[in-house]
């Protein structure tokens, strides 16, 4: 009991309260400062990243030119690379001219209405599917019709800004928080010092013996002098209470001894009596006295028991009505109750129940005493009425008798110990005191008054036990077994390469079927872009990294929370939405019967020279991707123009050598195997390197260059519209897991990312001799440059015309 | 009768009292010995103290009942807390008395037990001028036969079997009527009133406590 009280007090300690209010003040201050800091952080982050937008806009405007058809633009890679510095942000851009309309990019991006043509950059926020920050900048170019305005508008999502803003804000707040904590520390010290007098009082009291009840002395500070006085008055109360207890013990001793002396006196008188009648008379009195002594002792013991139980006993839910009935049935057997008319009335009980929390033994004792009183004071022709009734809050137990009752003035005194109002009918003087103790032990009240029968009416008012009917909620289990569910994968990649992965995943996902649908890269791109509601996929897999980036840049992808342990390297993931899972270098394959490894060129510069030198030998026997038909081919070719100034020269050389173009790697492999080609460029090397030479393909050699070799990665993402997003996420995680990567390594012609991650470029089994260096193509906005309509048309037109082929029409 | 009590002074006074009333009483002071004695001898009433050397009074009582010994037992205890009494009654005691007790009360309780036992085992119940022959289903006061209807005889039997026990109206109705008859509490009330009137002047009293029930007792036992 004391332990909990101490704890309660502790939790409401003054020190804590003061500290808490100071802390609240600090928090309020921090909140105010945090608002300012937040605005500052946002402005600072915006300034930083507006520079990126401005830089990108400038570099695009620089490449705006005027040709016969009107203004045009050659989108610079640098613009996208600048934007990619905010690595996780999607990009939207647009170039247009008031007189010629949209030139390229996403048409109809939002422009503030109030905007005037200006050569200075204007920044503003706008909402597309999510928040974007735009730059809007114009340039006037000279045309045949005079000066034309061309505007560029570039927008970026806010991830990097938000991250920057949060970082600035967080560091600021951490600093402020630390300062606040130090401040609170000082507050705590101050509180401690000023509360020291209280501690002194506590020490004084602790040091006392339990007998020492003298008032505490000292000169308390003004603020606690009230407390000081209160403690002293409490001590005074304790002194009174102890005196009371002492007088009770003295009373008990007195009562018992008096009673016993009287008994002893009567007995010795009886023993000394000469005449038989006198002796008999004395003995009769002695017997009466013994009866009183027994009654007194019983009552004293009952009193002690009731007090003890009220401190100790556990109150249990019970029905007071049953207890009263049983007790009355017991009592009625007593001979002294035979002439008394007793009735019991429980008709005032709703539903016949009187639920309370109680201790049966104590309540029985109280009821005995009430009835005992009623019998003792009820006189002749007594009637005793016992009633139980209840309402929503309380249960009342009432005992009324037909005796003379107690005068109103004496009612208060009646429940005190050793007080008997009527000396003729006096009992031990403990009866009502016992009843009162029982009532107090039950949190009940004892009310005394006049009964309708004319005598005393004693009522114990118990708090009613509220029976909380607990509604049993039955969980209806879905009885039907989980029906088979479907995970739909749309992929533009060799099904032979994906099948083992799909099978393994299906095997470990009972209740799931996996539907795998194959596409060409561009078809898949169009289907997803146009969001055909009929063909909703859960996972989109494609080898065309640029098209995948374009789709994710549109905001179509769902953010996946993959464990850090399986995340691919930086270059092979974007925005936690797009994930590469293979490592596939572009290689030169050649016919071993035509060339020796040593004779092959070692750099892109040498490659052009090599083909030119062997032009006659290679005529019509060099292969490459048809850039119009193959997404991979286009990707490799455009990346080559970024990496190497030799790219254009190489194209020309190939054209002179009458190079053949193919749709895909497998066709080129077959052609080399069949001796139709001596050499093929930018072939996905993993196929050639990994697969056990098929019969008839033993002659295929794989060659890497020393300056760089592009590496692409097949990528997967989950559309926001995926019907089974969780399973889709698990599938992507599976692709990147150790198990998935090992299946890629062992059962498919692809090379897993994991190998290259755990053992850097650890391709001992597949990596060719020499100093080949590998340059992974990085996922991100940088890949968007060559998807620009004008840029793409221009690139393909130039390629077609170089190859001397048919006219290229977009 | 058998008194099992370890305190010699108390035992002596009880023995004197009961013997002066003409009972023949044996006394044991030890629980084990009392148990052995009860195993082979039979008594009309056993007065059993709880706190005994050897085995406790409860154990003695329990082994009696488990042997199928139905001898009426009055438990004597110094503990006033009712829990003990309930345990005692549950263990198979027929009655209990808390020390210190009034010797007249003790004699009266013994008589009641003897009457209940006599009423159910022999065929004749008698108290003062009142006499009831179970076999003949006839009651006599001072030798004159009382006119009793069948239901009244039934009620009388029930009340005599439960001498000094409080029976609720419902309990009486249950014992009085068969399952098919719908017992009316009103009818029970009227029946009791009629029987009481016929028993006026006899020491047999049926007391009504309104709201509680009925109890029969023999008034001149005091």
Automatic annotation (TrEMBL), chain A:
Domain called Histidine kinase: residue spans: 251-466
Subcellular location: Membrane
Enzyme class, first EC level, given as a word: transferase
Known EC number: 2.7.13.3
Gene3D superfamilies: 1.10.287.130, Histidine kinase-like ATPase, C-terminal domain, Periplasmic binding protein-like II
This protein's record includes keyword Phosphoprotein: yes
Keyword Phosphoprotein applies: yes
Transmembrane annotation, as ranges: 18-38, 168-191
A Pfam family per the record: SBP_bac_8
Swiss-Prot/TrEMBL keywords: Kinase, Membrane, Phosphoprotein, Transferase, Transmembrane, Transmembrane helix, Two-component regulatory system
Domain HAMP residue range list: 192-243
Catalytic activity: ATP + protein L-histidine = ADP + protein N-phospho-L-histidine
Main subcellular localisation: membrane
Name of protein: histidine kinase
Annotated organism of origin: Salipiger mangrovisoli
